[in-house]
Amino acid sequence: MDFELNKEETMFRDMAKEFGQKEVLPTVQEREREEKIPFEILKKLSSLGLTGLRIPPEYGGLGQTWSILGLVAEQLAYFDFCVAMALFGQISLVATPILKWGDEAQKKEYVPAVARGEKMGAHAVVEPNVGSDASSIETKAEKKGDGWVLNGNKTWITNATIADFVIVVAQTDKSKGTKGLAAFIIDRDTPGLSSTKIKHKLGLHTQDTGQLFFRDCFVPDSKRLGPVGDGIRVSFSGIEHTRFGLAITSVGVIQACIDACVKYSQERFQFGKPIGSFQLIQERIADMVVDCQAGRYLAYRVASLKDKGMPYSLETSIAKMFCTEAAVRAARQGIEIHGAYGYSDDFPVERYYRDMISNLLMGGTVNIQKLIIGGAVTGLRAIS
Question: Is the predicted pLDDT of residue 383 greater than 80, yes or no?
Fold first, then answer.
């Protein structure tokens, strides 16, 4: 078992680290305070080809591995979690389902534009009354002529108000439960589609989050993504990859928290000496370091399995659960180490905490990951 990076992996990791240092870090506090979406940074990532990092060359991407995408996301998250997930999410939640389930016309229309950073997509499953229970999806898709008419609402959708198109999961036959679900690609300018921004969030201030409304929204059958009945499989083909993204970006935030706490504990003096010399401070930092290393290897293991084409679902849930919880622990400890200063946005630890709380919820809650893990180990599924 070898945990050493090869030359190509090292090159991409270092490229992302240098980019984060030069392009992301200088503006992160300003963007956070003003809640500005990092469009300019995403354009610069596109110019480096990183928005197409995991997309095949025939569709305008670099065709790189999940390991390399993970390394890039980890480094970007060290400087700004929202930037990292903006990059990762377009590949995992948008391009990947289209590549896996789309026909050639759909792939050519949408994937190269995502790879070049010319178009941004969204992925809409969650509804006001529906979270993890996909069988209860209320958004309806009724067959009409050569297409479908959609009616319903989606909420807590990343990029809801800025996406050029959205992958939507809707119910075609309620009596069939998840077997009645279908996925559709809907362009922003489709009549009957509207959106509104969700404001006053605890964290993710530089990420667009909103609601989508479908009112007699006609979608031609050529925009159906995958067969009718496979809608949830289409969605999960993106969500599972995103769980890996949430795990590896959490590791980047934990490392940032460690470095911030080490720096502060070396510079902050109490009782005539740096607080880093106190055993309780060292204990807290040591706990963060152990969590960071453990989480990193769990996430790297997932990337390795994915790249080898081996089963990875169980390991992904393990990594997602551990890394996201560890990131919240680290950020909370970071605030306490900084004392009252940790409560101010003059220091980054409060942002780490606010953003990492969201990771416990996105991509399936901690409890959902526990059910997946427990079901895999016992062979008994708690939910169908």
Answer: no
Is the alpha carbon torsion for 41, 43, 45, 47 positive or negative? negative
State yes or no: pLDDT of 40 exceeds 90: yes
How high is the pLDDT of residue 37?
Answer: 96
Continuous segment of H or E residues that includes residue 158: strand 147-158
Helix-helix angle 81-89:231-267, to 10 degrees: 160
Cβ atoms of 119 and 164 closer than 8 Å:
yes
Q: Could you give all domains of the chain from N- to C-terminal order, each with its CATH number? A: 7-115 (1.10.540.10), 121-229 (2.40.110.10), 233-378 (1.20.140.10)
Q: What is the pLDDT of residue 133?
A: 84
Q: How many CB atoms lie within 10 A of CB 30?
A: 9
DSSP state at residue 3: -
Q: How far apart are CA 140 and CA 346, in angstroms?
A: 47
Q: Which are the contacts of 311, defined by CB distance < 8 A and separation ≥ 6?
A: 305
Look at residue 1 in the predicted model and tell me its pLDDT. Answer: 59
Q: What are phi and psi of 18, to 5 degrees?
A: -65, -40
b/e per residue 79-95 (b: at least 16 CB within 10 A): bbbbbbbbbbbbbbbbb
What are the pLDDT digits (tens) for 91-149? 999 999 999 999 999 999 999 999 999 999 999 999 999 888 888 999 999 999 999 99
Tokens (6 digits) for 4: 């050493």
